[in-house]
Design goal:
Elements lengths: L1 H23 L1 H17 L3 E2 L2 E5 L4 E5 L2 E3 L8 E4 L2 E6 L9 E9 L2 E6 L6 H9 L17 E9 L2 E6 L6 E5 L3 E6 L8 H20 L12 H29 L3
Helix pairs in contact: 2-4, 3-4
């Protein structure tokens, strides 16, 4: 009996120690989950500087969440998502799906780049995500923890545009506000990877429609060398035309 009692005490001690470890390291666990599932969804490096959770009030904040550029582009990051605040419905903490009242992403920064081969980093990321133009919602699979997001807002975003064919000269454009409602509701909840994919899809569409106004489309699919050769041909053509005009003028004077 004494041995059984000692065994129970040891077991309880192990459980309490485990719970204390999880509680004290919960921010780090969430940070690791974001980086793992985000990298899995985008097939690029996703990093987070800090996660702060306030479980009693259902609040959370995430800072320094960056989505890396696909290979073949100059900047380390494509998206820098600025400050993210989250409000969770605390009554759903032990449920699946968890209900998130609101996610707010403030002042994200985007680098839209067309490299020397005429490829854009946004299109490369879209290919990694497997996004089709018709994709508009996340679907859920398996028994992973899922979530329903009542409101997701991205605002105050800006994009820097860099095109190799123009010598890397930068332009900038403001990004329209994004607002999504009831993410994952129809499917009974979306996994973290599915939310990452959906949000990336919406932000990619937002960026592409915004930078299109700058006329970047004509540089897609064409290498920087093609534009250089075209410029050289135009200069040579202008020089030949000027020479022909000069010869005609000389002819008028019998020279």
């Amino acid at each position: 009996m004494k041995k059984i009692l000692i065994g129970i005490i040891v077991l309880v001690a192990i459980v309490v120690t485990a719970l204390m470890f999880v509680w004290s390291n919960l921010d780090g666990i969430v940070k690791d989950a974001i980086q793992t599932y985000g990298s899995e969804a985008t097939k690029t490096q996703v990093s987070v500087s800090k996660v702060n959770l306030e479980l009693e009030s259902g609040k959370a904040s995430i800072s320094g969440l960056n989505v890396g550029n696909p290979k073949g582009f100059t900047d380390p990051n494509l998206f820098e998502l600025g400050n993210i605040t989250v409000k969770i419905d605390t009554s759903s903490i032990n449920s699946n799906p968890i209900i998130i009242d609101k996610i707010m992403i403030q002042s994200p920064s985007v680098v839209y780049e067309i490299n020397k081969d005429g490829l854009s980093n946004v299109d490369a990321l879209k290919k990694n995500l497997g996004i089709k133009e018709s994709d508009s919602s996340a679907s859920s699979k398996g028994e992973e923890t899922k979530m329903i997001i009542r409101k997701l807002v991205v605002q105050g975003g800006k994009a820097k545009v860099r095109i190799a064919a123009l010598g890397g000269m930068e332009q900038s454009v403001n990004l329209p506000r994004i607002q999504l409602k009831d993410v994952g509701k129809k499917s009974g909840g979306a996994t973290a990877a599915e939310v990452a994919k959906l949000l990336s899809s919406k932000m990619i569409g937002n960026v592409k429609s915004s930078v299109a106004k700058l006329g970047v489309g004509k540089y897609i699919g064409k290498s920087a060398d093609m534009f250089k050769n075209g410029a050289s041909s135009a200069i040579n053509g202008a020089s030949d035309a000027a020479g022909a005009v000069g010869n005609k003028i000389k002819g008028l004077f019998g020279k």
